[in-house]
Amino acid sequence: MKFNKVLENIQTYEAGKPIELVVREFGIAPKDVVKLASNENPIGTNPAIAKVIRSNADIAHLYPDDSMFELKAALSQKFDVNGDNIIIGAGSDQVLEFISRALLNEESSVLMSAVTFAMYEIYAKQMGAKIIRTESYAHKYDEFMEAYRKYQPKIIYLCTPNNPTGDATSREDVLKIIESVDKDTLIVVDGAYMEYAAAKDERYAVTPTDLIGYDNVIYLGTFSKAHGLGGMRVGYGIAQEKLIKELYKMRPPFNITTLSLLVAIEACKDDSFVEASIALHQEQIKRYETFAKENGISYIESYTNFITYLFDENLDSTEISDALLKRGVIIRNLASYGMNGVRITIGTEVQNDVFFRHFAEVIS
Amino acid sequence: MKFNKVLENIQTYEAGKPIELVVREFGIAPKDVVKLASNENPIGTNPAIAKVIRSNADIAHLYPDDSMFELKAALSQKFDVNGDNIIIGAGSDQVLEFISRALLNEESSVLMSAVTFAMYEIYAKQMGAKIIRTESYAHKYDEFMEAYRKYQPKIIYLCTPNNPTGDATSREDVLKIIESVDKDTLIVVDGAYMEYAAAKDERYAVTPTDLIGYDNVIYLGTFSKAHGLGGMRVGYGIAQEKLIKELYKMRPPFNITTLSLLVAIEACKDDSFVEASIALHQEQIKRYETFAKENGISYIESYTNFITYLFDENLDSTEISDALLKRGVIIRNLASYGMNGVRITIGTEVQNDVFFRHFAEVIS
Hints:
By secondary structure, chain A is of the alpha/beta class.
């Protein structure tokens, strides 16, 4: 059978290693595994969310309301936009897929930072598009403009705060790039970790309201991180109605589960969980900064719920990640991103204690 | 912004109307709405499944094991295939999408019966492929062969039992088509409702084991129907490893939720719920057959959990569906499939009582 040519060039995404794998491969009890690899919310599941799940456990046989009327109403209110400005995805990931499929083909190129969310490249390659990257992982205006003028990309991805590096781009700089780009290029502002950046420094807060006036910009958000719903797979895109309508043509029916729909509606009502997540994070990340300084390790100033440690030639990120894995501590090795570094989700106090203990031993 | 040309030609799928819509539009209390439109399992959620959901309500923040190791092991055992022969989708729907994206382009065509599952066409159109249909809704060998020889389609869809008509194709006839088709055409055997057909007449049972020997055939199954997990969005494709590997390139990470993964594993362990679903169904469908005969309405002999009534010129399917909707009874109008008929999910005894009462009034 002859498959489409684009398949020859596609690598599949390497997900953070699951706890189940460590249990299977190294015989470590699940309770002793500390997973700081996938930027899951260390507090756990919001009790209000767990309650919604439990009370609706007996409607798993029913398809969700595919109009997502109530979730769109909740998001409309939260972000001061209309329901027609919103598309829901199985994670903001799926909205990235819709965008890629609606706009890209073998003649297009896409522009992104040197190190950024891996799915931009994978979805673009699925459409045969060419990948252009700037030199820095930071979203520098001059680098983006130079590449933009040279390649006229169909899509520019601005991941802010950036994953897996943790740095962010200020609202001013995001708007400066948007203002300098022609209307035939779509700018994707991926704010998956925006709650953390906005809480740290309001100059880094970018909101759908800042962007809805532009007809070539889409804002992406997710319930997976600050809302602690990674396992439920719900994200969203917010843009002008005309764009949303086109993306809808690539949306499969019932693209989130019945329970996912209900918990996302509940999550929109409850800001206190997000606030508690951020408070824990802000307190605990200081320990990672201090530890790095005390041990002569560089790190990238973080605007997210994780921190990226960068190693010099004396430390190897693959060796360190593998050694930690055998001890039941899962972090994300960044070697596949071309960096000698690791991304560590900021955990609970206890999880971080375990990490520091093992990490100190491994690097000594 | 210039979107891909294929978008001009895409219609979005019209999902069965949700209960929420009837509540909103007609002010009917949710408990008084009878939904027989989406082939959801009328028994409801398996209590063993509801228990799994409740006990895991507090891990909604954790991503699922993306290797789906345990679910694949359970399916391997159930169907006597290897884990490498399996790909999991958010419903078998998503596997259809992977297939379409891996194989189709603007030069290809796909072949399907005159009336069959709507997503075959939508996913094929998303890739710009041409849609070829046979004359009958039944999967007739001669009609398929004639179109196959004429158009050399890249994919042939055999939906058995067929949705939304309810008829089925025997194993003998499925294998006859497969044997007559060249290896460069993929044959998709969509067995979403197979449990019902197999229980009714074993000559209509088609299993992955029947098909795994062919390198151009894929079997699709789902947990949405007989297993009663429509709202959880889990389906699967079973084929030779080489094909599965290509489809994997189009699979997004974490494409089912954490709870969906756990309930699907549980569902593989529990045959009794499927047996009870089929028993209820077989008992209740007789009432639909009897009612039709008594009222001079034609119907298609059903091998699924629904029945299709066909109307003559004295009855109009749109008027009937609309009148029932206002009474809180949701069924599926088949006008958009070019048929003057309706598809009715076989409900519980009480649901069917309500249906017959309103339907008798509406058609009189």
